[in-house]
Amino acid sequence: MMLFNEADTNKEPSYLELLNPAQRTAVETTEGPVLIIAGAGSGKTRVLAYRVAHLIYQGVPPRSILALTFTNKAATEMKERISAIVGDDKSSMVWAGTFHSIFARLLRQVASSLGYTSSFSIYDTEDSTSLLRKILVDFQIDPKTSSPKSFLHGISKAKNELKSWQDFADDTSPQMKVFVSVYKEYEQRLRAYNAMDFDDILINMIRFLQLSPQTLEFMQQRFQYILIDEYQDTNRSQYISTKLMAEAHKNICVVGDDAQSIYAWRGADIRNILEFQKDYPDALAVRLEQNYRSTKTILNAANAVIAHNTHQLKKELFTENPEGPAITLMETQVDRVEAERICQRILIDTSTRGDLQLKDIAILYRTNAQSQIIEDTLRKNNLKYTIIGGMSFYKRKEIKDILAYLKLLINPSDQESLSRVCDLTTGIGKTSLMKVEVYAKMNRIDLIEAFSQVHEIDGITKKAADAMMQLATLVEDNKFRLDHEPHADVAISYIEQSNYLKLYSNTDDEDMQDRLRNIETFVENLRIYLENEENINQEDATKPTIQEYLHQMALISDIDTLDLNADRISVMTLHSAKGLEFDTVFLAGLEDGLFPLTRETSTKKDKEEERRLFYVGITRAKKKLYISYAKQRMRYGYSTFSAPSPFLAEIPEELFEQRHSLTNSRTVNSQVKKPTTMTSTSYFQNEMPEENYSQLEEHSMYTVGMMVRHRSFGEGKIIRISGGGESAQVEVTFRSVGQKKLMLKFAKLEII
DNA sequence: ACAACCGACTTTTTT
DNA sequence: AGTCGGTTGT
């Protein structure tokens, strides 16, 4: 299976033949700094993987290669590709992963030098917010004037700029004083709890590198070759940390596309990529401009759109792919109909194009809020889909609760998790908890330890004391079991003993039963993970333990779990779609204000980022692009009216499907056709007036067994009618082409 | 300590 | 609109 044989070094490795000249240069220039400007669909992932494979081919030890990606999914994909060339045993030793997951793993090995233990917790946004809320309460800061979230935002921004609270200490404005005190307290508590937030993982890596010349040299030696994907989306601490690591050998290869920079809002600094050649004057710059993904039509649209940005590196993607079908623009009155129309098109396309499967289709939108209505409509039409983002499985309350219980077992200092568990435990209230907290602080012990000594503390009700004692015992006993029993057994019985499940059982509340099922799914996944021997095989991966599981869990994102092989429509935000590609893409909600999303503070720069996001969306499509918008949309619970997105006018008109090509597309309901109000622009797809929709319920003129004639398929017999209303479908066996599934509403069936 | 009610906030995007 | 956290009354 391997594409090269080590012994046979005279011959050029065959995988190089699969590359174009630019790609090949990018792969073969293994020494020194390399900047790869890779346009959308230019084979970037392939180049990265081949480059790593080539390094290994040339004898570089896999474990000294560090490949940093944006998502875990991208890392897994890269590993798979590398593995296909050099084999699994070698590829699994490459350090490939996200900044956060790789750094966290490294930090666990050196945690003690930074004042943590190796089992430190990682706090997500919710954990951090909840911690800040408690701090605000303690500091008696009115949460109305400044919310925990706004503090977290400020702190995260400061951390991204590598500024500690001390850096603001000189600022004496009252507002800043408050900020500094909260920032300081937040940092101290994280430390006391043996916990890091997302930003800390990056910052602590820098701190470690700068701890001493020895630690820096150690890391530089460890990673001789560094590759960074999506470099346009790296932030300051990611930039600094990798720059430090590469300082000695300068074997740093970054790949990115300034036109796809869409994360400035969370601190990504586009200068990192724009000024790479300033940092490394002898860097080789390679441009990958041939697109292998999309049709000419789609690429032309993308190029035209991005040309409206002033602050963009000049780049013109080209493709040798065919022209492809025109872009379809769909205008509807309201959002629900927009969703309905998308579903109809999917039903039509999948039935008329034999090669098109649901997994080839994506519906993309700007905000997660838009997903609800799309989801509803897909479900109504019996279309299978996978949704990414929104409320991800692991962010659900019941799952986070279970995770908090488990974290307690691993990190006894994790007071945030403990406090979450206390909220769930009947008997433990605010008053008694406060008293024990004081006691723990005075005696310098962990809160959970104080629980086991609760009888020594004055003024605690018996009920509270019992509950605390019980919790302390539960955690203590199971912690002990971790060293002696299979973790799967411990996890399951621990969760059972916790009584947490009681909250959800004995009720016919549907929501509660749902949550219980989620927990069951979660526990089952956990069990499978813990019992899976395969996880042990990887060189540097440890045994599958509860620790390991929690550590991985903290940094997993929704997109990582997306299974593109399942035959389902992918539904997600444009941000989540970065790096993915689909045959057919629907871009929904192209309305002014929604996309580009604008708020009072929006600047020209923001609009350019929105435009890049649009560019990303367009270039996800391989063959067919649909763009839609609704004039009227529910937002915040009430109806808002919007004009079409100004972005639409940036796509050359001739790339859109012309109206006349569709005017004749319906015959079944032609008798109900009324004059429609069309927009002045000529390229909108002809739309059915919405007041006619109800009349579509009437499809009873067709029955099973009836002979019909189709304009292109000829004569056939109806063998099935399914669905109702909008989405009624017929299955017809045609003499010429055999069985076809058709949308009744659009199929031109003549009864014979 | 807990249940029931109330009001604020969400909806930009996420490691 | 729906969720979540906080408040109030028992």
Rg from alpha-carbon coordinates: 29 Å
Q: What number is the mean pLDDT?
A: 83
- What is the overall shape? globular
- Please identify the structural class as seen in this structure: alpha/beta
Query: Which percent range fits the helix content?
Result: 40-55%
Write down the oligomeric state. Answer: single chain
The DSSP helix count reads 27
- Which regions contain 5 or more consecutive residues with pLDDT less than 50? 1-9, 536-540, 660-700, 723-727
Task: Based on the model shown, name its key terms.
about 750 residues, 7-stranded mixed β-sheet, 6-stranded parallel β-sheet, disordered N terminus, DNA-binding
Describe this structure in words.
This protein is of the alpha/beta class. Helix content is 41%, strand content 15%. Strands 11, 12, 13, 14, 15, 16 and 17 form a seven-stranded mixed sheet that branches. The protein has a six-stranded parallel sheet with strand order 3-2-6-7-1-8, sandwiched between helices. A hairpin with a 3-residue loop joins strand 20 and strand 21. Helix 6 (125-138) packs across helix 7 (148-160). It is globular. The structure holds a DNA duplex (15 and 10 nucleotides).
